[in-house]
Write a structure and sequence with these properties.
The protein has 480 residues and is α/β, with parallel strands linked by helices. It contains 21 helices and 20 strands. It has 4 domains: 126 residues, Rossmann fold (3-Layer(aba) Sandwich); 176 residues, 3-Layer(aba) Sandwich (Rossmann fold); 75 residues, Helicase, Ruva Protein, domain 3; 80 residues.
Length: 480
């Protein structure tokens, strides 16, 4: 069975430029249809769906942005590459938001067009795989542990992006497992038998980063006593993982952009061009668009790398994955340290579920290791949890919410009222069952938020699903 040619519609009013672009692609296996107006493009697209569209913005009968809007809203699987001689950051952002795969500012050379088209085709293939990929419920994946809905979405995204060469852009708080995601993408890819090379862009000083990335020749700078391969050479044929990409020096980002676009680079101190075949995976614990707006991350590099986002949820939004992961670490550390631990007590589990886990899975791992090292028993009891767990409990939230509303809490002594200031009354907090204290906190939060559960969950630093689950369990208890 022969592989069909790629199909491309080129919407360009300049016959001379259209001829140049067609020449750029003469060695590519692609069928090109050229039109000069929006009307012609609309008529053809009504009866034909190409793989790609090269779309000029300034056309004689209107703006190409209107055709972009119509194409993306029709849900057709056409990858649109916008071309304009009047390029601006604002127009680039608008075209990407409308669904364009990428943008080219005229004039551009043949390599830029070919690389952009290759990336667009890879992205199109990925989109089609995502559409047909079946949802498989899993309680673990690669190095991840978890069966929550948010993690099922992560697993499916990794499954889909791994089989392509499209750049994956992993976003998540510290400790959520960004490196695990990169490892899973590489392990499931066609490059899995080659190297996965990692560079932490936030851990290497700016002046050394270019050499670390591209390598250097002997004598390139003081201390360069021998030539050295950089990550680009080491990762040739495999995957290059750029961790904390938003920490990279802004000047080096320009060279990285050229490298990502062409696969070509120069070692520090050398004028010789080298070419490699690399799949890029990036990660950051920041909001990359905020970094773009602040001028710390190049906008063109962001849109070049942000092909397939992989968003890792924080642990506080993963429901009872906390207990699955904790049980895994408990068994691991108990075996390593020769302890008898087998499980967590219900009170300890409840406290762990209500804790916000600002350090995410990494904090959970350290917490369980701390418990196992400092204690030895069959069951992890509430009192074995670190002290910080009792600074985040429902009681603290409940007291804060009541103070904010200027209303005395239940059983709270009134200032100046000697009768109600007896220690025995105050001590009633300490003998209330934990679930009652938690119930008070949640109900108070919901009431103060005028019934808005999502807002209450934010104040309590738990997932909304946690509140819904607990309120349902209380209703069942009261009905039984």
């Amino acid at each position: 069975m022969t592989k069909r040619n790629l199909s491309l519609i080129m919407v360009e009013d300049s016959e001379s430029l259209a001829a140049i672009y067609t020449g750029y692609l003469e060695d590519q296996v692609v069928d090109i249809v050229h039109v000069t107006t929006l009307a012609q493009a609309t008529e053809i697209l009504a009866r034909w769906t190409p793989d790609l569209m090269l779309l000029d913005i300034e056309l004689p009968d209107g703006s190409g942005m209107d055709l972009l809007r119509a194409t993306t809203s029709s849900k057709t699987c056409i990858e649109v590459i916008v071309m304009t001689a009047h390029g601006s950051s604002k127009m680039a952002i608008e075209s990407i938001h409308l669904g364009a795969f990428d943008f080219l500012t005229k004039p551009f050379d043949a390599d830029r067009l070919r690389v952009t088209m290759a990336n667009a085709i890879a992205h199109r293939s990925l989109r089609k795989k995502v559409e047909v990929f079946s949802a498989i419920e899993r309680d673990s994946y690669g190095g991840f542990i978890g069966e929550s809905l948010s993690m099922q979405a992560v697993y499916r995204t990794i499954d889909s992006v791994a089989v392509s060469d499209a750049t994956a852009f992993i976003i998540g708080e510290s400790g959520t497992g960004k490196e695990l995601a990169a490892e899973a993408i590489h392990a499931q890819s066609k490059r899995s038998k080659r190297v996965l090379h990692t560079i932490n862009c936030g851990a290497i000083p700016g002046e050394l980063m270019e050499s670390e990335l591209f390598g250097h020749i002997k004598g390139a700078f003081t201390g360069a006593t021998a030539s050295r391969d950089g990550a680009a050479t080491v990762a040739d044929g495999g995957t290059l993982f750029l961790d904390e990409i938003c920490e990279m020096d802004i000047e080096l980002q320009k060279k990285l952009l050229r490298f990502v676009q062409s696969g070509e680079f120069h070692r520090v101190g050398s004028n010789e061009t080298e070419r490699v075949d690399i799949r890029f995976v990036c990660a950051t614990n920041k909001n990359p668009l905020d970094e773009v707006r602040a001028g710390r991350f190049r906008e063109d590099l962001y849109y070049r790398l942000h092909v397939v986002p992989v968003s890792l949820p924080p642990l506080r939004d993963r429901d009872e994955d906390v207990l699955l992961i904790a049980e895994h670490f408990l068994a691991e550390f108990a075996d390593r340290e020769g302890r008898a631990f087998k499980a967590f007590s219900p009170a300890a589990e409840q406290r762990m579920l209500s804790y916000p886990w600002p350090g995410n899975v990494r904090e959970l791992q350290n917490t369980v290791q701390n418990i196992v090292v400092l204690n030895n028993a069959d069951i992890v009891e509430l009192g074995m949890l670190p002290a910080e767990f009792f600074d985040y409990g429902p009681m603290a939230v409940y007291q804060t919410l009541n103070a904010a509303s200027h209303q005395p809490a239940v059983n709270e002594p009134v200032v100046g009222d000697a009768e109600h200031s007896e220690p025995v009354n105050r001590a009633r907090y300490d003998i209330e069952p934990l679930w009652i204290t938690e119930k008070h906190a949640i109900e108070s939060a919901i009431a103060l938020c005028d019934g808005n559960v999502n807002r209450a969950a934010g104040l309590l630093e738990v997932a909304p699903s946690t509140i819904y689950r607990k309120t349902q369990s209380w209703k069942k208890s009261s009905n039984s």
